[in-house]
Amino acid sequence: SEVSGLILRQENSHSSLNLHQQTLLNQLREVTGTTDVQLLQQALQVSNGDLAEAVAFLTEKNAKVPQQDETTYYQTSQVASDRYISVGSQADTNVIDLTGDDKDDLQRAIALSLEESNRAFRETGITDEEQAISRVLEASIAENKASLKRTHTEVWSDSPNPHDRKRIDSCPVGLKNVGNTCWFSAVIQSLFNLLEFQRLVLNYSPPARVQDLPRNQKEHRNLPFMQELRNLFSLMVGSKRKYVDPSRAVEILKDAFKSSESQQQDVSEFTHKLLDWLEDAFQMKAEEDREGEKPKNPMVELFYGRFLAVGVLEGKKFENTEMFGQYPLQVNGFKDLHECLEAAMIEGEIESLHSAENSARSGQEHWFTELPPVLTFELSRFEFNQALGRPEKIHNKLEFPSMLYMDRYMDRNREITRIKREEIRRLKEHLTLLQQRLERYLSYGSGPKRFPLADVLQYAMEFASSKPVCTSPVEDIDSSAPPGGTTGSAPGLAPTTAPTAAQQQRVPIHKPFTQSRLPPDLPMHPAPRHITEEELRVLEGCLHRWRSEVENDTRDLQGSITRIHRTIELMYSDKSMMQVPYRLHAVLVHEGQANAGHYWAYIYDPHQRCWMKYNDISVTKSSWEELVRDSFGGYRNASAYCLMYINDKKPFLIEEEFDKETGQILSGLDKLPPDLKQYVKEDNELFDKEIEEWDSLQARKAQQEKLHPAPPPRPLPLIPQQDPEYMEQPSPTHDSKHLQEDTERAISKAVAEQEERSPEALLNAAIKLEYGRLLRFAQEDTSPENDYRLQHIIVYLIQNQAPKKILERTLLTQFADRNLAFDERCKSIMNVARAKLDLIKPEEVNMDEYETWHQDYRNFRETTIFMTTGLELFQKTNYVEALMYLIYSYQYNKELLAKGLYRGHDEELLGHYRRECLLKLNEQAAAMFESGEEPEVTTGLGIMNELVVPCIPLLLVHDAERDLLAVEDMRNRWCSYLGQEMESNLQEKLTDFLPKLLDCSTEIKSFHDPPKLPTYSTLELSERFSRVMAALSRAPGEGR
């Protein structure tokens, strides 16, 4: 079944026959759900290739097999090329119930499906998979059109300011998401950054005799697509835009097929088809250039390799050479890439492959005879859940290396690899025995509870050496009396005296179930009643010796296990098995579930020696650590679905092209052929014109504003309202993911602790747990750098004594987040929460009050961003930029504190840094004025007129002593220049400036607009706030 996703091309004389048989096998596999290759082959043999009879044979066999458990997962087959039928190709709006026991209905439905599929191919010449791809593309185009009417998180709207869309230097160009096409961007960017592939596409020219060629379906499809791909690549090379629009290439793909349905399919299908189309396009050119010779197709040479299938079928040995493109690997059950590869290279029982006996067992091994320069692995992370009737994503962790050595899988190393595999098998068997022996030491006992044997012996030694300390039953009555029992003395009585020796010697007679008095000689803690010094000495000696022996045995076993693990790890580390190195070039990542999600790519830049993240229009520097976090899986809903490795011994794959005359590296437009160079120049001219028109428009607006000034704005406008980043979003953001993880954690804990498993009971328990966690945060006395209000709105609401109904609705909204619907349990809890929200009557929760509280929290977050940014800039001595952030943060914070003590931050702290920033700027400006140099003087007075002077009324308005002193200091500094000798032009400027500085009015005449805020997630904001506050606490007294 592992071979199902390979692009098979038999190179023997029976290639067409094998291809037809493989197609039948895949059709059978899909419509019957059977994955056993031998069973499928048997069905074809029995039916002599008749599909209907083969289906009947398989359904009869399946009817005899006991029904699987409901929770059993079945692996969906991955489609590799147009030789195969897509998993989703049979999707239809007319659903036939195939769950009953009526075998005839099942056979009729399957036969009908096969007949329709074959008829469609005969009539149109288009395979089911091509129709599936068409549906993906049509969905993308439809999504793009629909985005004009609604907001979609994946569709980027262009900024009206072209300067925001201008490419900076030689930064990589992004691709605009034109509607659910992040998959297109991830794949295209990965291929574009293979410079050899880029060159092939850019320098492609259609066949010269294209008019003489038959205008078939492929030609209609491939040639226009190749031209659009060339255009797209040329823009990615030489455009002045930060990102470009790939709509025309996507439109070509959509127009290639005709389909009325819209259904999203696996992205791997698109990648397969893309390479197939490119292969066909280059094949036409290759055949024209190499008449009479066997043409070489550069796509085949770049992406396709060969392997030898060596096996036994019903006791008969065989060897076949087959071709492959993207190599599929199963993820489930494996911890790293090598384990996946080892499993994929061996099918069935292989003992008979190496033995001389004529065994009836069947199985095969794969050995690579030729690896492609670009080696691509498809990671199968989707399974079909038969019980739920839908595909589900596998989130298991799978590690992969940045450098992969393929020597162990090469045919030339077949014998040595078999020896090493046998050695590893033997070591693993020994390892299993050692682990079992170790487990007996670490989990000792015969009951349900087991403990480490060394600890058991230690406990026994502690017990033996304990001295019995007796107590009166009255002294221990509160803790030792059984519930409801009587003790013979009142709870309020004082303790009695210690029992006499005679009382200790007398053995009391107990009457179970009728008398609850505790024995008078009961010790305070477990201890032996009677043990002699000799007995204790012997027992302690034995227990010490036994414990020492057990600890030594345990250490020896652990040491042996560690050595075996290390031996297995180093099995292929000798130089002879490190001659075929493949370096990781790109990782394509999917985040989400099986039916929806987002795609992006990590691509290695060998020239900058760093990883880059290509996320639609955003192209940013990244790191191996970020790649690991997002790609290995197991951490969240993101994981790699495709790995692209390149042969490290073939540098031409990623080497830049050099000018033959100058020897300089070709870059930008110099890399392009004449036709594409002209195409990019024209597009750049259009963009330059757009910038020119924008600048002209802005200049006209500025002129109009001077002629017709607008009324003066309010000095400090209210914080603009925004959608809450800390609660539910239309689609997951960093904040909603952070909140979603908290919610899912509460649900998981509720499931573990709650006996009743109904969704309502679990919701109530989860809300109670989440509220308890947040209440502890709200009540905790923390240092200034740990402000839990930033982590959750509930903490803010609790500390500010928000009404109970506001808290309840906010928590319900958290659990009603649609992003929780990743499994049935969370989905049902989400639905209950939504139902409860709908049942809340208007008179129960005042929605105006609710919105006011949430708006206050949004204002608190924005104030924190102003404050954090301002303090960071202040610490970097960037006082010019820091000032506006500190001014606005102080003012907004004051408005918050007017409603309550815990609504904002420390007013004295913000006041101090606002004041200090103005003093620093005054000091800088005065130093520039003292220099006497014209540019310096102008800059210094500009700082005073544009920044310092407009802020002075803010310091005067509240009559705060320290603020008044600061203003006085600033004024005194400038007034001190009046008695000094200076040039006439400086004296003139000073005379013009001082009246503005000395104006005692508290009226704010003009003020800057609030600076643009950076966007922070909850986690980022908390971390930045914590860092800046910690830095302030470490600062010396003068700078604090």
Automatic annotation (TrEMBL):
Sequence ranges of Low complexity compositional bias: 479-502
Family annotation (SMART domains): UIM
Stretches with biased composition (Pro residues): 709-718
SUPFAM superfamilies noted in UniProt: Cysteine proteinases, UBA-like
Domain USP positions: 173-648
Cellular compartment(s): Cytoplasm; Nucleus
GO molecular function: cysteine-type deubiquitinase activity
InterPro entries, per database record: Papain-like_cys_pep_sf, Peptidase_C19, Peptidase_C19_UCH, UBA-like_sf, UBA_8, UIM_dom, USP, USP25/28_UIM
EC numbers, comma separated: 3.4.19.12
Summary of subunit composition and partner proteins: Homotetramer, inhibited form. Homodimer, active form. Interacts with ACTA1 (via its C-terminus); the interaction occurs for all isoforms but is strongest for isoform USP25m in muscle differentiating cells. Interacts (isoform USP25m only) with MYBPC1; the interaction prevents proteasomal degradation of MYBPC1. Interacts (isoform USP25m only) with FLNC (via filament repeats 17-18, 20-21 and 24). Interacts with GAPDH. Interacts with SUMO3; the interaction sumoylates efficiently USP25. Interacts with SUMO2; the interaction sumoylates efficiently USP25.
Reported function: The muscle-specific isoform (USP25m) may have a role in the regulation of muscular differentiation and function.
Protein name stated in the entry: Ubiquitin carboxyl-terminal hydrolase 25
Upper taxonomic lineage: Eukaryota, Metazoa, Chordata, Craniata, Vertebrata
Gene name tied to this protein: usp25
